[in-house]
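Service request form, structural biology core

Requester: graduate student, group of Dr. S.
Request type: structure prediction, single chain
Budget code: on file
Notes: please return the result as structure tokens.

Sequence provided:
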Amino acid sequence: MERLYKVSEVARMLNVSAVAVRKWIRAGRLGARRVGKLWMIPESELKRFLGEKPGDFFCSVDHLRISIHNYSLNLS
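Core staff response, request fulfilled:
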């Protein structure tokens, strides 16, 4: 079974607010499904959203934050 992430988990991984993640879901940019009252984001959808190849996906929140930070530094 595919791993599902809560909105709050995705927000922490991407260092954004849960409100931002919900906006992406409402706008159709990030696919999610309702499980009871919660929005859950499938791992495959998170990978697609991040533009990562399946083997390149970072599972560690700290590692992802560092990777995003380093990426943003390279854009400057």
